[in-house]
């Protein structure tokens, strides 16, 4: 399965009481698919505030996303956790709801060994029949999926890709050693172009909520061999890439991108605790990124 070059990890829109706003959920999908040109959407990933969503909310999100996408993009369900048994349960439920693939974050907090990581992913892969994308984000999970482990996992038939937030050296090792056809996606917006340069397929993005069209142009330029133009566009977009994650007080995602969407008139609400909304100073900084 080809997930395209630009996958957006979609925010979960909330109303004033921080319940999921299902009307806006569909509006955000339309906006990301049609206006921002996303090839695939991750539903209930980190940017979707998965740690604070109930299982019922996740399953309804998967079901609604599949139904509303109507084949316009691939729907990737975030079903990973630090509990292998629960990850299997949620992954099987998502598969029954018709999602195209699963995104499985590395187990966080309990910090398994590399063999534990391998066995975790192997067990989930053997429990479903749909494609699996690994998700390596050491800054959030406290554990790195080493390149050798990812390469080993790439030989399991339905483990078809990875979203990796590590540096380009690690991406290069994976791309060089993985099974034929295994796809590598950067998980760092500012590394989109460098990742493409070492052979990555594309990006799983947060910034594509607000500059997806521009990112699409940059990616397409690079793939057409227009490297200088791609580099120029990368330079233009870099302040937004960095700004959405390096607000004055390093506000955790998705608070900054949610505010950016609210500024654009796409009302997605605030964030659930323990995350907090951006401050007035941070709002001014985010607005300046698009001035």
Task: Provide structural commentary.
The active site is at residues 135, 163. Pyruvate binds at residues 47, 204. The protein is α/β, with parallel strands linked by helices. The chain has a single domain, classed as TIM Barrel. It contains 12 helices and 8 strands. Helix 3 links the parallel strand 3 (74-78) and strand 4. Helix 6 packs parallel to helix 7. The longest helix has 17 residues, at 227-243. The radius of gyration is 18 Å and the shape is globular. The N and C termini lie far apart (39 Å). The model has no long low-confidence stretch (mean pLDDT 96).
Helix and strand topology:
Elements: E1 6-9, H1 22-35, E2 40-43, H2 55-69, E3 74-78, H3 84-96, E4 101-105, H4 114-127, E5 132-136, H5 138-141, H6 147-153, E6 159-164, H7 168-177, E7 183-186, H8 192-197, E8 202-205, H9 208-223, H10 227-243, H11 255-263, H12 280-289
Parallel strand pairs: 1-2, 1-8, 2-3, 3-4, 4-5, 5-6, 6-7, 7-8
Family: Belongs to the DapA family.
Main location: cytoplasm
Active site: 135 (proton donor/acceptor), 163 (schiff-base intermediate with substrate)
Structural class: alpha/beta
Distance between the termini: 39 Å
The strands making up the biggest β-sheet line up spatially as: 1-2-3-4-5-6-7-8
Count of helix runs: 12
Overall domain count? 1
Helix content: 40-55%
Tertiary shape: globular
Low-confidence runs of at least 5 consecutive residues: none
Protein name: 4-hydroxy-tetrahydrodipicolinate synthase
Subunit structure: Homotetramer; dimer of dimers.
Active site: 135, 163
Subcellular location: Cytoplasm
């Amino acid at each position: 399965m080809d997930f395209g070059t630009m996958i957006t990890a979609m925010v979960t829109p909330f109303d004033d009481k921080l319940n999921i706003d299902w009307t806006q959920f569909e509006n955000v999908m339309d906006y990301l698919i049609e206006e921002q040109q996303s090839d695939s959407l991750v539903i209930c990933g980190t940017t979707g505030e998965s740690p604070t969503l109930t299982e019922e909310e996740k399953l309804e999100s998967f079901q609604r996303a599949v139904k509303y996408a109507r084949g316009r993009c691939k729907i990737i369900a975030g079903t990973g956790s630090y509990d292998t048994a629960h990850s299997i349960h949620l992954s099987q439920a998502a598969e029954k709801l018709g999602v195209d693939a699963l995104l499985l974050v590395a187990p966080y907090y309990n910090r398994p060994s590399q063999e534990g990581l391998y066995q975790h992913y192997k067990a989930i892969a053997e429990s479903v029949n749909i494609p699996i994308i690994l998700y390596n984000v050491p800054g959030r999970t406290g554990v790195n999926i080493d390149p050798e482990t990812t390469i080993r996992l790439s030989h399991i038939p339905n483990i078809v890709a990875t979203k990796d937030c590590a540096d380009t050296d690690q991406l290069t090792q994976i791309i060089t050693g993985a099974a034929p056809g295994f796809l590598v996606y950067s998980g760092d917006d500012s590394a989109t172009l460098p990742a493409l340069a070492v052979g990555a397929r594309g990006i799983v993005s947060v910034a594509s909520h607000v500059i997806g069209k521009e990112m699409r142009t940059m990616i397409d330029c690079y793939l057409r061999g227009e490297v200088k133009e791609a580099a120029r566009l990368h330079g233009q977009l870099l302040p937004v890439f960095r700004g959405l994650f390096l607000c004055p007080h390093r506000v955790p995602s998705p608070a900054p991108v949610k505010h950016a969407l609210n500024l654009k008139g796409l009302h997605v609400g605030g964030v659930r605790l323990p995350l907090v909304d951006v401050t007035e100073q941070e709002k001014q900084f985010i607005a300046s990124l698009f001035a």
